[in-house]
Amino acid sequence: MKTLLVLLTLIVVWLLTYGTPFASAYPEKAHYYGSPEVILPMTFAHGDHTETRCMDCHHNFVDDTGGEPCMHCHVSDTSVSGLLEPQFHDFCRGCHEKEAAAGKVSGPVRQCIACHLSDLRP
Ligand code: HEC
Ligand code: HEC
Ligand code: HEC
Ligand code: HEC
After folding, report:
1. 1-53: per-residue pLDDT in tens?
2. How many structural domains comprise the chain?
3. Residue 9 maps to a domain
4. For a FRET experiment, which of 12, 80, 115, 117 has its CA 20 to 30 Å from that of 45?
5. For the whole prediction, is pTM greater than 0.90?
6. What's the domain range around 110?
7. CA of 76 to the centre of ligand 3 (A)
8. Residues contacting residue 111 through CB under 8 Å, at least 6 positions apart
9. 89 lines ligand 4 (CB under 6 A)
C-alpha cells in the first residue's frame, strides 16, 4: 500500500513537472501551403519517399497544369476541393496500406497524428 502511494505521488509529480506523455501536441489548423482555407498540417518528408518517382505525386507537372504546391489547387479549385480528405487519404494512406500489406516498411496507416502533427517539408 505504501509503495503504491509513493508510486502514485511520483507519477503526479512527474505529470506536474513534465506534462502528460499521452495527449502531447495537438494538430492546429492553419493556412498551410498557401491554402486559402485553414486545413490540418500534413506531415510529409521527401526523404521518406525517395522510392517514388516525382511525377507520381507531382501529377500537375505531367498534365502541365502548373507548378504550385498541391494545396493551392486542392483547396481552392472547386472541382477537387470537396474531395481533399478522401483523395489524399486514398493517395497517401492507400500507398502505405499497400506497402504494409506487402510486408514492406510503410508510412502511417491509422495514426492520424503521424500525418497531421507537423509540417515537415524537406
Ligand atoms: C510521395 C509523393 C511525392 C514524391 C515522390 C515527391 N514529392 Fe515533392 N511534394 C510532395 C508533397 C505532398 C509536397 C508538399 C506540399 C506542397 O508544398 O505542395 C511536395 C513539395 C515539393 C516541392 C515544394 C513545392 C512548393 O512550391 O512548395 C518541391 C520543389 C518538390 N516537392 C519537388 C519534388 C521532386 C523534385 C521530387 C522527386 C525527386 C518530388 N518532389 C517527389 C509529394 C511528393
Ligand atoms: C495546378 C493544380 C494542381 C496541383 C498543383 C496539384 N493538383 Fe492534384 N489534382 C488537381 C486536379 C484538378 C485534379 C482532378 C483532376 C484529375 O484527376 O486530374 C487532381 C487530382 C489529384 C488526385 C486524385 C487523382 C485520382 O486519380 O483520383 C490526387 C491524389 C492528387 N491530385 C494529388 C496531388 C498532389 C499530391 C499534389 C502535389 C504534390 C497535387 N495533386 C498537385 C489539381 C492539382
Ligand atoms: C507510393 C507510395 C507512397 C505514397 C504515395 C506516400 N507515401 Fe508516405 N511513405 C511511404 C513509404 C514506403 C514510407 C516509409 C519510408 C521509410 O520509412 O523508409 C513512407 C513514410 C511516410 C511517413 C514517415 C513515417 C515515419 O515513421 O517517419 C509519413 C509521415 C508519410 N509517409 C506521409 C505521407 C503523406 C502525407 C503522403 C501523401 C501526401 C504520403 N506519405 C504518400 C510510401 C508512400
Ligand atoms: C498517411 C497520412 C494520413 C493519415 C494516416 C491520416 N491523414 Fe488525414 N489527410 C492527409 C492528407 C495529406 C490530407 C490533405 C492535406 C491536409 O489537409 O493537410 C488529409 C486531410 C484530412 C482532412 C481534411 C481537411 C483538413 O485538413 O482539415 C481531415 C478532416 C483529416 N485528414 C482527418 C484525419 C483523421 C481523423 C485521421 C485518422 C483517422 C487521418 N486524417 C489520418 C493524410 C493523412
Report:
1. 566 666 555 555 555 444 444 445 678 899 888 788 899 999 888 999 999 99
2. 1
3. no
4. 80
5. no
6. 25-116
7. 25
8. none
9. yes
* Domain-embedded: residue 87: yes
Domain-embedded: residue 5: no
Query: Which grid cell sits at 30?
Result: 492553419
Burial class (CB in 10 A: 0-12, 13-18, 19+), 49: middle
Q: Which ligand 1 atom is at minimum distance from the Cα of 121?
A: 14
Three cell numbers written together for 92: 497517401
The answer to whether residue 15 is domain-embedded is no
Ligand 2 atom with least separation from CA of 91: 29
What is the DSSP code string of 14-76? Answer: HHHHH--SSS------B-GGG-SS-B------GGG-TTS-HHHH-HHHHTT---S-HHHHHHH
Q: Residue 31 C-alpha to ligand 3 middle, in angstroms?
A: 22
Q: Which cell numbers hold the place of 106?
A: 510503410
